[in-house]
Amino acid sequence: MANTRPLDDSDHARISAAVTAAELHSSGEIVTILADRSDGYTDVALAWAAATGLVALMALAIAPDFYMGLYDHLLGGWGHEWTPRTIFALAALVAGLKFAGMMVLQMWQPLRMLLVLPAIRTRRVHAAAIRAFRIGAERRTAGRTGVLIYLSMRERRAEIVADAAIATRVAPEVWGEAMAAMLAEVSEGRVADGMIAAVDRVGAILAPHFPRSDQDINELPDRLIEV
Fold first, then answer.
1. Tens digit of each residue's pLDDT (9 = 90 or more) over 24-38
2. Which pTM was predicted?
3. Which helix (H) or strand (E) element contains residue 157?
4. Which of 37, 32, 25 is nearest to 110 (CA)?
5. Residue 34: its H or E element
6. How far apart are CA 56 and CA 18, in angstroms?
7. Torsion of Cα atoms, 175 then 177 then 181 then 182, to 10°
């Protein structure tokens, strides 16, 4: 994705206006959420740090003279007898330092995200979108017509989740066009335009299935939610 600028008040206003316009033709209620990231991936960071420590132990087993010589050098060049205790202490020291070093390196978020497998990113974003949908849209409209558009920036993933009534009439793959339109804009750094494109297409999909009635009221906020 291209570099993106933070959304300002005008961007928020444009997205809210797009949601309002889309809902003029449908009883569907569209909720938009923009997340910086969907997970901290601490477990992934720990796994990489543990793997680094294990590799360090394997390196020590393959080339013990190098590490022993380095240890002696740190002690000022004084040689000493290597006992099982000192060997195990050296192994623990090397593994611990490698583990800690890898954890420190992964405090830099671009590296942490780079080390997260794409499949893991996809699952975590999907799970976060489902949680957000259950909190902010599911069963919160009289006709079960809520739709969540969820964009997670660091993972470069998006999800569209629909409430029960919509899911019975609109197949999940139908949202693909809206997703593609959004990600095409976001990949060029135009986040607000991407959200607006998705809102427009979601509204167009909902209108034939759930036309707006005269008694329809706005049940969910039109504003963009940033988390």
1. 888 888 999 999 999
2. 0.81
3. strand 157-162
4. 37
5. strand 29-35
6. 54
7. 10
pLDDT per residue as tens digits for the range 69-97:
666 666 655 556 667 777 777 788 888 99
| Sole residue written with tokens 């809520």 | 146
The number of beta carbons lying within 10 Å of the beta carbon of residue 10 is 9
- One-letter amino acid identity for 219? E
Q: Going from the N-terminus, what domains does the chain have, and what CATH number goes with each?
A: 9-39+117-226 (3.10.310.50), 42-114 (no CATH)
CA–CA dist 52, 152 (Å, integer): 29
In three-state secondary structure terms, 76 is coil
Is the C-alpha dihedral spanning 15, 20, 22, 27 positive or negative? positive
pLDDT digits (tens, 9 = 90+) for 176-209: 888 888 999 998 889 999 999 999 999 999 888 8
Looking at 24-75, list the stretches that DSSP marks H as alpha helix, in order from N- to C-terminal side. Answer: 42-62, 64-74
Q: What does each C-alpha distance from 190 to 5, 182, 197 come to in angstroms?
A: 8, 9, 11
Residue 177 to residue 137: CA distance in whole angstroms: 22
Written in H, E and C, the secondary structure of 159-213 is EEEECHHHHCCCCHHHHHHHHHHHHHHHCCCCHHHHHHHHHHHHHHHHHHHCECC
Which DSSP helix (H) or strand (E) runs through 152? strand 146-152
Q: How confident is the model at residue 129 (pLDDT cuts 50, 70, 90)?
A: very high
